[in-house]
Amino acid sequence: MSTRQNTNRIVIHCSATPPSMDIGAAEIDQWHKDLGWSGIGYHEVIRRDGRIELGRDYSQIGAHAKGFNEESLGLCLVGGVSEDNVAESNFTQEQWRSLQITVKHKALLYPGVKFNGHRDLSPDADGDGVIGPKDWLKQCPCFDVDLFIKEIGL
């Protein structure tokens, strides 16, 4: 794995798993290995109970957002789809608290860092200069990261 030289962006993801599926970094690591990757692509995973588990080493380039991995850290919230596999923001209060803490910590560690949801890094398919729902390749992380960042005062 290559070493990341800069951290200009934090990309927030979801695991696209239902609320009944309580997984963590170990399970995602195995899924990513099953895809032929060297291991987990995210740097942190926030479990349903709010525990933050370490994934890929922070110094290493992640494998979570094509075209942005060399400059970003990937954070993954467990959940993001309903029991019938429809995208939904179904994260627990413990996850929201942990996300708030880790986002504020990352903002202190990396002054000027940008926060994005994975979906917000989709290409501007219609060329209107705005990445919106019609452009999203995925729903991930199933909530508005910009609004979340504003709500927590960053």
Structure description:
This protein is of the alpha/beta class and about 150 residues long. The protein has one domain (about 10-150): Peptidoglycan recognition protein-like (Lysozyme-like, 3-Layer(aba) Sandwich), CATH 3.40.80.10. It contains three helices and five strands, in the order βαβββαβα. The chain has helices at about 25-35, 95-110, 145-150, and strands at about 10-15, 45, 50-55, 70-75, 115. Strands 3-2-4-1-5 form a five-stranded mixed β-sheet. About 30% of the residues are buried. The model has no long low-confidence stretch (mean pLDDT about 95).
Supply the key terms.
single chain, 154 residues, alpha/beta, Lysozyme-like, 5 strands, globular
Number of domains: 1
Q: Under the CATH scheme, which class?
A: Alpha Beta
End-to-end distance: 32 Å
Which strand order does the major sheet show? 3-2-4-1-5
The coarse overall form would be: globular
Query: Structural class of the secondary elements?
Result: alpha/beta
